[in-house]
């Protein structure tokens, strides 16, 4: 990811062609951040202006505003350019409030936890 | 630098990049760098229903460190050429 001249930024792997554009940043922990790329370096450290986190649970989603974020490069999985004329999400998805998405998130987490403990107990039974 | 050169030759071809988080993205290889960071164009996610947030992403940058596999076009590898290059590199030349 070298510094490229203004005429070949669109040919290189550098993030320069994404500067000042609205992006989706996928992080290693599965979080999705949206914001405008203002700066970056060779490690994919990035500065997002007007960042927000998009939480998706099933068909519900919510954008939680965060402000100005510096993301450490090692946590970045993917940086995608968002097409402005295309719908960001499938039409069947509904925007809900922050409280509501947090509740849905908790329900989902509890369900996976329950599945985990049940599996653990089954494994225990198999051992006998 | 062998795989860097190799991927540079694949620019413009259609590849599928599978990430360590099981997200698989198909697209045209736009560019690659020394870290094997990859830029794809005209991307589509293989399992779109599982990753609805990727719907409006057409171009993306993928950090080299999170790539698990790159699935190549069937005629994408010249095995003999790669074999020779590997030996040359191993000899230090």
Q: Would you give an account of this structure?
A:
The complex is a heterodimer of chains A (128) and B (93). With 128 residues, chain A is α+β, with helices and mostly antiparallel strands. Chain A has a single domain (6-96), classed as SH3 type barrels. Chain A has one helix and six strands. Chain A has one helix at residues 98-127; strands at residues 22-27, 32-40, 46-57, 60-71, 76-82, 94-95. Chain A is extended. Chain A starts with 21 loop residues before the first strand and ends with a helix. Chain B has 93 residues and is α+β, with helices and mostly antiparallel strands. Chain B has one domain (2-90): SH3 type barrels. Helix content of chain B is 23%, strand content 37%. Chain B has two helices and five strands, in the order H-E-E-E-E-E-H. Chain B has a five-stranded antiparallel beta sheet with strand order 4-3-2-1-5. In chain B, strand 1 and strand 2 form a beta hairpin. In chain B, 25% of the residues are buried. The mean pLDDT of chain B is 92. The interface between A and B is medium-sized, with 32 and 28 residues. Strand 5 of chain A pairs antiparallel with strand 4 of chain B, so a sheet runs across the interface.
The coarse silhouette of chain B is elongated
**SS elements, strand count of chain A:** 6
Q: How many helices of chain A does DSSP assign?
A: 1
What is the first-to-last residue Cα distance of chain A? 55 Å
Look at the helices and sheets of chain B and give the structural class. Answer: alpha+beta
Please tell me the CATH architecture of chain A by its name. Answer: Roll
> What is the H/E order of chain B?
HEEEEEH
Largest sheet of chain A: 6 strands, mixed
H-E string of chain A = EEEEEEH
At CATH level 3, the topology of chain A is SH3 type barrels
* Poorly predicted spans of chain A: none
Alpha carbon gyration radius of chain A:
19 Å
The rough form of chain A would be described as: extended
* SS field, number of helical segments of chain B: 2
Describe the biggest sheet of chain B? 5 strands, antiparallel
**Estimated radius of gyration of chain B:** 14 Å
Largest interface (CB within 8 Å) is between: A-B, 32 and 28 residues
Mean pLDDT over the full residue set of chain A = 89
**CATH classification class of chain B:** Mainly Beta
């Amino acid at each position: 990811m070298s510094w490229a001249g203004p005429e070949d930024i669109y040919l290189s792997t550098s993030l320069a062609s994404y500067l000042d554009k609205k992006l989706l940043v996928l992080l290693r922990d599965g979080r999705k951040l949206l914001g405008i790329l203002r700066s970056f370096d060779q490690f994919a450290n990035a500065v997002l202006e007007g960042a927000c986190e998009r939480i998706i649970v099933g068909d519900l989603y919510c954008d939680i505003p965060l402000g100005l974020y510096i993301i450490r490069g090692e946590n970045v999985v993917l940086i995608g350019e968002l097409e402005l004329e295309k719908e960001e999400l499938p039409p069947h998805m509904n925007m809900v409030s922050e409280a509501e998405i947090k509740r849905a998130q908790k329900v989902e987490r509890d369900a996976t936890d329950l599945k985990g403990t049940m599996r653990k107990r089954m494994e225990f039974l198999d051992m006998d | 630098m062998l795989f860097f050169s190799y991927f540079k030759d694949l620019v413009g071809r259609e590849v599928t990049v599978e990430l360590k988080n099981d997200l698989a993205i198909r697209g045209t290889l736009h560019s690659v760098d020394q870290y094997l960071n990859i830029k794809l164009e005209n991307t589509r996610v293989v399992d779109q229903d599982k990753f609805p947030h990727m719907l409006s992403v057409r171009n993306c940058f993928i950090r080299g460190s999170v790539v698990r596999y790159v699935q190549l076009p069937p005629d994408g590898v010249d095995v003999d050429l790669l074999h020779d290059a590997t030996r040359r590199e191993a000899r230090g030349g």
